[in-house]
Specification:
It contains 3 helices and 8 strands, in the order βαββββαβββα. The protein has about 170 residues and is an alpha+beta fold. It has a domain of about 80 residues: Alpha-Beta Plaits, CATH 3.30.70. The strands form 3 sheets. The protein has a 4-stranded antiparallel sheet with strand order 3-4-1-6. The chain has a two-stranded antiparallel sheet with strand order 2-5. The protein has a two-stranded antiparallel ribbon with strand order 7-8. The longest helix is centred in the first third of the chain and has 17 residues.
Length: about 170
């Protein structure tokens, strides 16, 4: 939570404002960390006839219901010029990467099918030449693709055609 308080507040009144919001957070099952007080700074633009404000950043953890209550109370507090409550997303735990099968050079791919050793999806893993050769030997040899039905057959130009005798 970021707060910009009125510049004329002394330290006791600043502490009283922080105590009030600490109680709201704790009432909603949260905890508050040590506030980071930046002190009096010049505002980028005038807010409520003030050119300066006291900046305080308060990191906290609480249920989502605390955000609505904090927002409601901060809007009506005369000592607060501006406020911002930021919700940080929870970090996702890393997904385990599948290990290659011990039975052969193939590992399971993302779609569940076998993936040749030369096409592993984990970058940075070295591929042994023997594994690559075994994977290539295990793949059936592919012949030249047949002409597609969509493609027209090439016809020789009139200059290339053999003259016909009539």
């Amino acid at each position: 939570m970021a707060l910009v308080l009125r510049p004329e507040l002394d330290e006791e009144r600043q502490a009283a404002v922080l105590t009030r919001y600490r109680q709201v957070i704790e009432r909603h099952g949260g905890s508050i960390e040590e506030p980071n007080v930046w002190g009096k700074r010049r505002l980028a633009y005038e807010i409520k006839d003030q050119n300066e404000g006291i900046y305080i950043f308060v990191p906290f953890k609480a249920e989502s219901t605390a955000n609505a209550e904090l927002d409601r109370l901060l809007r009506i507090d005369e000592n607060v010029l501006r406020h911002l409550v930021v919700i940080r997303p929870r970090p996702n735990p890393p997904k385990p990467t599948p290990m290659p099968d011990a039975a052969g050079p193939r590992a399971e791919g993302a779609r569940g099918g076998p993936v040749p050793a030369g096409e592993r999806q984990s970058p940075g893993l070295p591929v042994r030449r023997s594994e690559l050769a075994a994977a290539q030997a295990a793949q059936p040899q592919q012949s030249e693709p047949a002409a597609d039905a969509d493609e027209p057959e090439e016809t020789p130009s009139p200059a290339e055609q053999e003259p016909t005798q009539e």
